[in-house]
Specification:
931 residues, Beta-lactamase, 5-stranded mixed sheet, 24 strands, peptidoglycan synthesis, transmembrane, signal-anchor
Length: 931
């Protein structure tokens, strides 16, 4: 072996060469493996990407199942003459659809020019636009350059409606890919014209408007078909950013955008240079500002529309929709609701109720207050008006939340905050409202159709929609307004009573022993049911209710008059409440009654006893013109006999002509009405009707304070008359017609029976009766009785001063009434036949009997002369009396020929004013309501 240096070098060199060759081979292998790995990864990524892309495509909505037409449309409400009175909208529904022939070509071209210049050339996506947007993004880092086509925007707005909530890039890319895919698919099935039209009906154009028609009306107060080129450019310029380019709030920014729109239209050949110049010279923004200043804030609906929306929602649910569907349909379904509101009548009501001079001069204000603070520990503290009232009552027990002025209320608020809010507390939110008091409500119904033609739910500025509506939402005690419905209607209709039936107005107790008191603080004796209605007599009404039973009265209210707020039996906190009791007839009920329902009850009487459910609309038409609810039928049910309705109407006419409601008699037409006043005068009512309309007006404090002044206690009557007198100004005078089945008869008004000649001459009256109910028995109240004209006692056979006079005998009452009769329950003028005058045999056995007779005769003469207002010395010679003791004064009672004549009908005058005060009346206690 060669171990020399040269040999060693050769061996080392050989070894090095061998290692290099293997290294190169190994490196090449590694490089190939690396390339293969990269290629595999690329292939995997591409495959994954293609798979993901295909997955995204596959998860896209089926093009055959999607609908790109806008789904949210405004609902419009119209009055009875077809005028629009409200627009109901929710988020994404203030839209009015139009057809393509209504949209000016300039507006179509304006959108294409500014949003999608190659709209008519691409297949749904714009490749050039995508490349341009990508280039801008790479070179400038800005993604502001849009590449979405009109087709894509349509799909985004109507299919991917949740795109505004995307919070990751992955979600955005996924939606973008699906959007582009669906855009291509949509272009295969829908024409460019339909795509553009749906786009123009969909887009957000600011100021809570969706679609070109809503925007045109809001900015220019005209239909989209009437827009000029300049105005078209204004609207098209809004699209990219409805807030930034709003022509009302940012006219300068919109003007810049408008110039770009017009410039693009010129560049693309949509308009000529002349058209461009003319449009640029126009000033559309001055017109927009004028329209904006004249545009009313229609976001606050009237009380009528508030009530209407509640009814429509209920009716839609009843028709089979879920509550969610009903709400969506009402506010986003593009419905047309034709209401029953009469614009003229509603206008009269609005004018009267908005005129503060029609209200009491001592208007006060009820405070509703809420305050939220945050302390140093980060805790939120809430303060309410109840807490405020409790705080002030610690030092002033009479304090309440009613203030004499808004300034006084605001001072109290500041004082309260200064004293209870800690130094470490920061005010987060504070809200308060001041509502004028007393408050009011009114419902007017055309009784022949059931249509509610006008409504007022309160006084003062209405600050929001669907607020407290006192005509439909609030339950108040009806007081005496319930008398006709709960007692007199069932008594006449099915219990065998007539208007001539007599009940003794005398002391009487409820079944629990509490006395029933009349508002006039006295008793009037035998009184007819007509008088009971006319003069709103509490004792007569409660006795009648006792006779017919509270159950019958309750059944009529619930089943005939459809009062929904009554309680048959309810247990609360271990106590049982029921409205089936004597106090029902005086309006003492658990919860109260709604204005619209008691008005409907009186409308039933006005309509001949035929009940029709109150209606606020006649029909509802959907977005496609189909009638989904037809409410035009006036079918109802005959709940009272027509004759009963007439008898009640006749008696209520007396209320207006000579009873408790004379203040509402505006003349010119027949009026029937019933007043209502509750205990302590918390509530006052006037329920009345003519041949045309039935109206019910209520007044009272929201917090149940007493109505203390005459202006306040007469407020319901005042407003009722002011409204109804104007409504009837141009209507022909009309009297209430007498139906068949009604007859008249003369009766004794103190017995309600046929009169006896010579006995009932001072108490005769003509009354209406239903056929077959005219009394057949003769008067049992008036009789002749022989009395001693000197002593007034029953005369003996020997009495020289015998006279016959008519006396009143109080008929015996049914046992059920006798059980609760109070002391002094009789007012008979019958002289006790067992107590005789002194002229008996013993008297005449006296030696000076004749002298005594002469003296007694002179006393009679003097009494009669004094009663007649003549000189007693002009009387005849008293000696003549010795021969005939009665000759000197042929009839010592001549001055009062009929002692009952002066009070033949204790209620005849009918001019007694309504009471100043009445008694308190919880449902289970005494009800002493006024007229």
């Amino acid at each position: 072996m060669n171990y020399g240096k040269e040999g060693v070098r050769k061996q080392e060199s050989a070894l090095r060469n061998g290692t290099g060759r293997w290294g190169k081979k190994f490196g090449t292998i590694l490089f190939k493996v690396f390339l293969l790995a990269i290629l595999s990864v690329v292939i995997l990524l591409i495959s994954a990407g293609l798979g993901a892309f295909q997955g995204i495509i596959d998860s896209s909505p089926d093009i055959s199942n999607i609908d790109v037409t806008p789904s949210g449309f405004s609902t419009f409400v119209y009055d009875s003459e077809g005028n629009q009175i409200a627009k109901l909208v929710s988020t994404d529904s203030n839209r009015i659809p139009v057809t393509l022939d209504m949209v000016p070509k300039d507006l179509q071209n304006a959108f294409v020019a500014i949003e999608d210049a190659r709209f008519y050339d691409h297949n749904g996506i714009d490749i050039q636009g995508i490349i341009r947007a990508g280039y801008v993004a790479v070179t400038s880092g800005s993604f502001s350059e849009g590449a979405s086509t009109i087709t894509q925007q349509l799909i985004k707005n109507n299919v991917f409606t949740g795109w505004t909530e995307e919070d990751t890039l992955v979600a955005k890319f996924k939606r973008k890919i699906q959007e582009q895919y669906l855009a291509i698919q949509l272009e295969k099935t829908m024409s460019k014209e339909d795509i553009l039209l749906n786009y123009m009906n969909t887009i957000n154009l600011g100021q809570n408007t969706l679609g070109v028609q809503a925007a045109s009306l809001r900015y220019f107060n005209k239909s989209v078909s009437e827009l000029t080129l300049s105005e078209c450019a204004v609207i098209a310029g809004i699209t990219q950013n409805p807030s930034k380019f709003n022509p009302i709030t940012h006219p300068d920014k919109n003007a810049e955008r408008r110039e770009k729109v017009l410039g693009n239209m010129l560049d693309f050949g949509f308009i000529t240079q002349t058209q461009y110049d003319e449009a640029m010279a126009d000033d559309p923004y001055s017109r927009i500002q004028v329209v904006d200043s004249e545009t009313e804030d229609n976001t606050v609906n009237s009380y009528f529309v508030d009530a209407l929306t509640d009814v429509v929602l209920d009716d839609l649910v009843e028709a089979g929709y879920t509550e969610t569907q009903a709400y969506s349909l009402l506010y986003s379904g593009g419905l047309k609701i034709y209401s029953t509101m009469d614009p003229k009548i509603q206008g009269i009501c609005d004018e009267v109720f908005q005129d503060e001079s029609n209200f009491p001069s001592n208007t006060s204000y009820l405070l509703d207050y809420a305050l939220t603070t945050k302390n140093a520990a980060g805790e939120y503290i809430n303060y309410s008006d109840e807490m405020m009232e409790t705080y002030f009552k610690q030092s002033n027990k009479s304090f309440d939340l009613t203030f004499s002025s808004t300034e006084a209320a605001e001072e109290a608020i500041e004082q309260y905050k200064a004293e209870v809010v800690g130094e470490d507390e920061t005010i987060i939110d504070e809200k308060y409202t001041l509502t004028p008091q007393p408050q009011v409500s009114l419902t007017i119904e055309d009784q022949a159709t059931g249509y509610i033609v006008a409504m007022e739910g309160g006084r003062g500025t209405k600050t929001a929609s669907r607020t407290l509506n006192r005509a439909t939402d609030v339950k108040r005690q009806p007081g005496s307004a319930f008398k006709v419905l709960a007692a007199y209607a069932p008594a006449l209709d099915s219990a065998g009573y007539t208007l001539a039936t007599v009940i003794n107005d005398a002391p009487f107790n409820y079944s629990n022993g509490t006395p029933v008191r009349n508002w006039y603080n006295s008793y009037r004796g035998l009184s007819t049911l007509r008088s009971g209605i006319r003069d709103s007599m509490n004792v007569v009404t409660v006795k009648l209710m006792t006779l017919i039973t509270p159950q019958l009265g309750y059944d009529y209210l619930v089943n005939k008059f459809h009062i929904s707020t009554l309680v048959e039996r309810e247990e609360r906190n271990g106590k049982v409440y029921s409205d089936i009791q004597q106090t029902l007839c005086l309006g003492g009920i658990t919860y109260g009654v709604k204005n619209i329902e008691i008005n409907s009850a009186y409308a039933t009487i006005a309509n001949g006893g035929y009940y029709i459910k109150p209606k606020l609309y006649t029909k509802i038409v959907d977005h496609d013109g189909n009638v989904i609810i037809d409410n035009t039928s006036i079918e109802g049910e005959q709940v009272l006999k027509e004759t009963t309705a007439f008898l009640l109407t006749s008696a209520m006419q007396d209320v207006v002509t000579s009873g408790t409601g004379t203040a509402v008699n505006f003349g010119g037409t027949a009026i029937a009405a019933k007043t209502g006043t509750t205990s302590d005068e918390n509530d006052v009512w006037l329920c009345g009707f003519t041949n045309y309309y039935t109206a019910t007006c209520w007044a009272g404090y929201d917090n149940n304070e007493d109505l203390s002044t005459s202006e306040e206690t007469h407020l319901a009557k005042t407003l009722w008359r002011k409204v109804m007198s104007q409504i009837h100004e141009d209507l022909p005078s009309a009297s209430f017609s007498v139906p068949s089945g009604i007859t008249t008869a003369t009766v004794c008004k103190e017995s309600g029976l046929l009169p006896t000649s010579g006995l009932c001459d001072g108490s005769l009256g003509t009354e209406y009766f239903e056929n077959g109910t005219v009394p057949t028995e003769s008067c049992n109240v008036h009789i002749y009785q022989t009395i001693c004209n000197y002593s007034g006692l029953a005369a003996t056979d020997l009495c020289p001063f015998k006279v016959q006079q008519v006396v009143t005998v109080i008929p015996e009452e049914p046992d059920i009434l006798k059980q609760s009769a109070g002391s002094g329950a009789g007012s008979s003028t019958l002289v006790d036949p067992n107590v005789l005058c002194p002229h008996n045999e013993s008297f005449f056995a006296q030696p000076n009997a004749q002298e005594i007779l002469v003296q007694q005769n002179q006393e009679i003469i003097n009494r009669n002369a004094a009663a007649a207002g003549v000189d007693p010395n002009a009387a005849v010679d008293p000696n003549a009396a010795a021969t005939d003791p009665n000759a000197a004064a042929a009839d010592p009672n001549a001055a009062a020929a009929d002692p009952n004549a002066a009070a033949a009908d204790p209620n005849a005058a009918g001019t007694t004013p309504e009471p100043a005060t009445t008694e308190a009346t919880p449902p289970t206690d005494d009800q002493q309501n006024g007229g």
